[in-house]
Amino acid sequence: MSEARADIGLIGLAVMGQNIVLNMDDHGYTVAVFNRTVSKVDEFLSQEAAGTKVIGTHSIQELCAVLKRPRRVMLLVKAGGPVDEFIEALLPYLEPGDVIIDGGNSHFPDTIRRTKYLESKGLLYIGTGVSGGEEGARHGPSIMPGGSAAAWPHVKEIFQSIAAKTPEGEPCCDWVGEDGAGHYVKMVHNGIEYGDMQLIAEAYHLMKEGLGLSNEQMHEVFARWNEGPLDSYLIEITRDILGTTDEDGRYVLDLILDTAGQKGTGKWTGVSALDLGMPMTLVTEAVFSRCVSALKNERVAASTILKGPAPRFEGDRQAFVDDIGRAVYASKIISYAQGFMLLREAANEYKWHVNYGGVALMWRGGCIIRSRFLGKIRDAFAQNADLHNLLLDDFFRSVIDESQAGWRRVVARAAEMGIPIPAMSSALAFFDGYRHGWLPANLVQAQRDYFGAHTYERVDQPRGKFFHTNWTGRGGRVSSTTYTV
User: Fold this and answer.
1) How far apart, in whole angstroms, are the C-alpha atoms of residue 199 and residue 171?
2) Which residue of 28, 174, 198, 399 is 20 to 30 Å from 125, comparing CA positions?
3) Element (H, E) at 99
4) Does residue 193 carry a catalytic annotation?
5) Contact by Cβ (8 Å): 120, 94
6) Is 307 a catalytic residue?
């Protein structure tokens, strides 16, 4: 029988899996590995993992046999069916108290289901978001674990050791909450990532088509932005992208077809927001913008038929660039405010105990949306753990106040020039809706009552008391059921 000498096992030796293993090895942990295509185990040991303490195994049984108790097995395989298949393959070789960890991009309802299933068998389960791509996996990702709370002490040291660190040295990893909470937080992270990328793309569009700036000029703008409040990974890589040329001296960005792909996590965020009745407007606009971009052939044909204003800017270009920066910053605040609104509602719905400041800490380093800005979100929740909306925090309210005039100028000018900026404009629409004590929803509700007897509440009566008007004189006294979000 094999000697139990590995601290943790990992199944799935694609690039992310390999880099996580090497990261763990760097931090002194002995990792046993297995891959469905077994030849990949030997290739990994002879190449990337040569000279390490990594233990290669050639079966699930062998993997489990070399693990110290309680056994910890991490899956980095394709989300969906493969996760369930490996869980079933592991079960005969595990015992109560052992821990299975899913580090893939699983949909949170699957993690809720799997946690319940494995706990019923006496095992512990963790569904953890891992963000940062290949580089993050190798040198320090953001790790967002949730699931069986009793499993956290068994993986805490390993996870916090390999995670990215803030400038203050804090690990970008902490326990998120019960069952699917970890994967839910990762899903919202990815949704916000869609929004951040769309905001940057809209700024690029405004500068390129609206102002006629060159790639080099835009490279300089993003370099300057990265030295200020917008300092972030995505601003930094956009700076680099705008300055990159090929062997013929052509800008690589100009050679890339304008169709953006997606893997579905942004869509999941939007669907969950709709299910929970939360207005995640900026992220859903970012998802739909990718959908519009995919209609390339239709857009090219439509461009010869449908006419709008020709982009022409007259005025102070530098002042408008500064306004675009303000619009990006203000819209980014809206996106994160909406994201935390969604997290809070999901925690209420699924009975999770989520530390929102801790979530901001996890996103400060290692992940794709890492930025200086996230430290301010953590500070806001540290000052007020019950903060209902980031827009009500003094710091973020003051930034919106300072940015608002420029933000409005950008949205108005973009409309005049015919340049689409759905994320920036939807963010402004949400802000204006949220700050209005009265909205015209009374008319919508009257319409619903007119055609469907859906009833309404009255301003001069207590909330929760419903009324119906016989608008035509021909209706009956029976009212419809109502659905309220």
Assistant:
1) 28
2) 28
3) strand 99-102
4) yes
5) no
6) no
